[in-house]
Amino acid sequence: MSSYKSPRYKSIGAIVRNEKQRLWKTSPGLGLQSLWTQAVGADISGHTEVRSFREGVMTVSCDTGGWACELGLAAAELAARMNAMNPPEAVTEIRFVHRARGSGNSRK
Questions:
Q1: Which of 11, 29, 54, 66 keeps 20 to 30 A from 46, CA to CA?
Q2: CA distance 67 to 54
Q3: What is the pTM assigned to this prediction?
């Protein structure tokens, strides 16, 4: 008798899910920024940029301190909006920071 085992293949769906989750964690600018724009709309998205996502905490930089303060007051609601869109990993907290002028991170 042969002890041959057939190779174990992953389904295409499993590969896509794994890759989506990997990108979500390592490349916030790819899928996460798009999801953020859908959750908050073009106006708010135009003044913000997702900087990082780690262990459920998303950090978003804002054009001005006023935007950071205002959005900080709505952080729980915005996290709920993000989670309603079924991201690969739950957003447990959103932190808003003011992007320093001249930092080279302008999205305009």
A1: 54
A2: 22
A3: 0.69
